[in-house]
Structure formats: C-alpha cells, structure tokens
Specification:
Order of helices and strands: HHEEHEEEEEEEEEHEHEHEEHH
Number of strands: 15
Strand content: 15-25%
Number of helices: 8
Structural class: alpha+beta
Bound molecules: 2,5-anhydro-1,6-di-O-phosphono-D-mannitol, magnesium ion
CATH topology of the largest domain: Fructose-1,6-Bisphosphatase, Chain A, domain 1
Largest sheet: 8 strands, mixed
CATH class of the largest domain: Alpha Beta
Number of domains: 2
Helix content: 25-40%
Strand order of the largest sheet: 4-3-5-6-7-8-9-10
Length: 350
C-alpha cells in the first residue's frame, strides 16, 4: 500500500501549488497521528473530562479539545509558508508569519464530536487549507468562500484511525498503521451513490425544524407504505466526522439544518472548519452540500466562527430537500400535515 508521504509527493506535484503544500499536508497528518495516540490512551493518559474552561462558542472545553488544539498549533506554527491558524478553540486567528506577502491559512476543528470523548465514542479532527495574499492596502484577508479551498480533510479516531483528504479532484482515504506510524492508502477515489435510504439527523430537534426538513423526514419514516415506497434507516453518532465518514463509505445523507431552537444561531455547525471542508469532500465524491437554500461552498463568510445549516450527502436526496425548500419559500402549499399548512406554526423567531 502506498504511504501517505509518497501519495502527497505525487499528488502535489500534479497541482499548481508549490512544494510547501506537501509540508503542510504531511504536518497535518503527523498532528493527526499524535492526536490519535492521545485519544486512544483515554483515561490512562489522563485525557478524559473537562478543563473547567469555555471556548469562544461558550462550550465547555474537554481536556482532549485543548490538547488536540495544542498539537495542531505547536506543529503548524513552525511552517514558514503558513500565515495564520484559525481554530474552533481560539477566538482570533493565530498569526504565525505575519510579514509574508502570501501564504497558507489553515482552519481546523481540533477535536470534533468531543461530547463523545468520555463515553469512548468516535471523535475526529477537521481541517481546511486556503492560500491568501496581502490586499493592495497591505491588509490580510483570511476569509474566503469554501470553493477557494486548496485542500480539506478529516480524521476519525475510531476502531482504526483514518484520514480522508481531498487535494486535486478526488477523495482519498488512508488508514494509520500504528506499527509503522504511517498512514497507508486504503480507499482510493471514494464516491457517494446518488440515491440512498439512510439518513442522519438529531431527531430531538424535530419540532424546531423548518417544514421542508420535517416533510422529508416524515416521508422517510413512512417507509415502504409512504410515497418514497421504501424503508429508510437512521443513524446519529453525535460526531460529524463519524456520520460523514459513514455517508462516504456506504451512502446516505447528513443534516444539521436550520432550526428555531436558538434563533441567534443559523444551525449548529461552523462554516469555516466544519461545513466547508466536509462540503468540498462530499462534492468531490459526487455528492451535494447545501443549506437547503444555497450551496455551502458559495457562502461568503463574515466571521471566523459563523454557523450554517448543513444538508449534505447523496445528490438525489439533497436535491429533493432543496426542491422542498423552493416550494416552501415560494408559498406552494404541498405540505400536507396541519403543521405544514399553517405556516404560522413554524415561528421564525429572528
Ligand atoms: P463540536 O465541534 O463542539 O464537537 O460540535 C460539533 C458536533 C458535530 O460533530 C455533531 O454533528 C454535532 O455537534 C452534534 O450535535 P448534537 O449534540 O445536537 O447531537
Ligand atoms: Mg466540531
């Protein structure tokens, strides 16, 4: 099996980016190897439990959130071609080589799904790589839409540690050989089937969703007796990396849609280091990624930690939900339950 380092050398040679990208990607893989070790040590390494602090999102930080963040920052800040690091755990970007004219900006969620840590559930890391240049006024602009990403990837620290990467046109997956301490290419050119009969959503939010998502899930749950004419299965890991990985490996759709649970949040997931990298991977694998109303990769970001609705996976299923949003927004009354007929029952408490 091909080693990650060899794959990267060949792959980056085929892109228009400089050799520095090779250093960035191999360093990211090495950080993931280090976080895998800490994660798999669990209680033995003293890594379980809370830090007693909160991040910028107001979320309680776990010890492993903080350790994973340190691992990324310590290693990536030594790379000359990187200008800035933007982490879920830090309010502001960490500027590392500020005087450069151009360089890489890395966005990352150091440990996604961290509510799973203490129950030994699957967690992972997500990253996104952009290039930036100084503007004519000499200012650095670190925020670009997801379609500008040069590379994106995630890891899962599950039964085996896997690294999924897109750089170029394809999505490639590697498995960590713990004896060699190397990622080996195990899943080339991952593709998502167009249709599917499996969905992932946190159903406890059902009453807060907008009618198009309620309608889609209702029809899935009616199974072979309903208009879809087939049974659907549901899975929810509480960890985006694990749920998206399943979608990539065997198909399906993953959603954290807009809801009116907390009106000040446009959904739960963060655009720059969760939705965008996953959207790039899903699209490169032949799937679709939307908020329901717009393509995620085309959203113009306004701040580092902004949230976005997420509906991604099998193209036919995502298109079906987009169609329901179009009908809902244009006032077409095809929503057949009392809840859907009375639009006022969905109170958009902005
Ligand atoms: P995190 O980055 O703080 O772990 O939050 C993101 C996670 C996603 O991995 C997952 O899809 C979602 O939050 C789970 O939310 P919920 O607790 O509503 O199930
Ligand atoms: Mg996360």
């Amino acid at each position: 099996m091909e080693k990650f380092s060899v794959f990267i050398k060949n792959e980056v040679a085929n892109t228009s980016n400089s050799m520095d990208l090779k250093v960035v990607l191999t360093t990211l893989a090495s950080c993931i190897g280090d976080i895998a070790k800490a994660t798999h040590q669990g209680a033995i390494g003293g890594h379980l439990g809370n830090m007693g602090t909160q991040n910028i999102q107001g979320e309680v930080q776990k010890k492993l959130d903080v350790r994973s963040n340190e691992i990324f920052i310590e290693s990536l800040s030594k790379i000359d071609s990187i200008i800035a690091l933007v982490s879920e755990e830090n309010e502001f970007p960490i500027l590392v080589n500020e005087s450069r004219e151009e360089g890489y900006v890395i966005f990352f969620d150091p440990l996604d799904g961290s509510s799973n840590i203490d129950v030994n559930g699957i967690v992972g890391s997500i990253f996104s790589v952009y290039k930036t240049k100084r503007r004519s006024d000499n200012e650095l602009d670190l925020l670009s839409s997801g379609s500008e990403q040069i590379a994106a990837g995630y890891s899962t620290y599950g039964p085996s540690t896997m690294l999924v990467l897109t750089v170029g046109n394809e999505v490639t997956s590697f498995t960590l050989d713990e004896n060699l301490n190397e990622f080996l290419l195990t899943h080339p050119n991952l593709r998502i089937t167009r249709e599917s009969s499996e969905y992932a959503i946190n159903s406890s939010n059902h009453r807060f969703w907008e009618p198009p998502v309620q309608k889609y899930i209702k029809e899935c749950n009616e199974g072979s007796e309903g208009q879809r004419g087939k049974n659907f299965n549901m899975r929810w890991c509480g960890s985006m990396v694990a749920d998206i990985h399943r979608v990539l490996m065997r198909g399906g759709i993953f959603m954290y849609p807009k809801d009116n649970k907390l009106p000040q949040k446009a959904g739960r997931l963060r655009l720059m280091y969760e939705a965008n990298p996953m959207a790039l991977i899903i699209e490169r694998a032949g799937g679709k990624a939307s908020t329901g109303r717009e393509r995620i990769l085309e959203i113009r970001p306004e701040n580092y930690h902004q949230r976005t609705p997420v509906i991604m996976g099998a193209a036919d299923e995502v298109e079906k939900i987009i169609g329901y949003y179009e009908k809902f927004d244009s006032g077409e009354l095809e929503f057949d339950s009392p809840l859907f007929r009375e639009r006022s029952l969905f109170v958009d408490r902005k």
